[in-house]
Structures are given as structure tokens and as C-alpha cells.
Amino acid sequence: MSTDALLLHRDLAELERLAVWIEGRAMRDLSASLSFAVQVCLEEAVANIIMYSTTTDDRLEIVVEVEHRDQTLVARIEDNGSAFDPTQVPRPPVPASLAEAKVGNLGIHLMRSFASGMHYERRDGRNLLTIRFVDVQDAAHGATMR
After folding, report:
1. Among 28, 69, 98, 142, which is least packed by CB within 10 angstroms?
2. pLDDT digits (tens, 9 = 90+) for 128-139
3. 2-145 CATH fold
4. 80 phi and psi, to 5 degrees?
């Protein structure tokens, strides 16, 4: 089991720092498909928090923590912004054009497509989003090895 954490602030440039962190430290020993899914989901979640939080100052703090055990990876994203429950955002309709696409809703749709499960709660004035991933390739490979 390994756990890693990163603190981000309210700035879209932080997404680049998140991407480097995901590629370098947090995604050791993951299959390419799981690493891609985790990267897409974490970047979409953090981008939504940065873009849509109604926190009025620049003190928005986002903590991203990743725990990897066997074929399961759990990512926890905690922030001190306004309440935002991505698990309750309705699935977006298929846009007629790219111009009609709402970035935030499509990001949540991507997260639902890649993650094995998502859970949100608001506790002590903080948003807590837990995203679970199961590495299907590794799980299937492990089953055939036995």
C-alpha cells in the first residue's frame, strides 16, 4: 500500500503541477489504462473546483490524496470551497456541437465513465470527494494467474 498527497491552490496553472505529480509520484506501479483514468478524473475534479467554487478569496485549498492497494486506487479530494456535489450533477445531453458543451458537466461525465465509484460529503465546511478505481486489467491478470 502506498499513499501520496498534494496541496493545490486556486489557480488553473496548478493543473500542470497536478499532472506532473500524478505521472511521477502517485501513479507508480499502475497499468497505463488505470493511470490514464486516474489522471483524467483528478484533473477534471480539480478543474471544476477551481473554476466553479464561489469562495470569494484566493485561500481556496485543495488537497489531493491517493492511496493504492493491490488492484484498487482510492483518490480523495478535499477543499474548503463552497458546497459542490459532483455525484449529483445530472448526466449531460449529447451536445450538438463542441460550442454547446458545458465543460464542467462533461468533466463529471468523464469521471463517471472512468471511475468505479464516487462518493461526496460535506463535513465541517469542507467538500470531501472520494473516487475509487479498480484496475480491471490487473484484476483479470491476477485471476488468470491463480
Report:
1. 98
2. 999 999 986 644
3. Heat Shock Protein 90 (3.30.565)
4. -105, 25
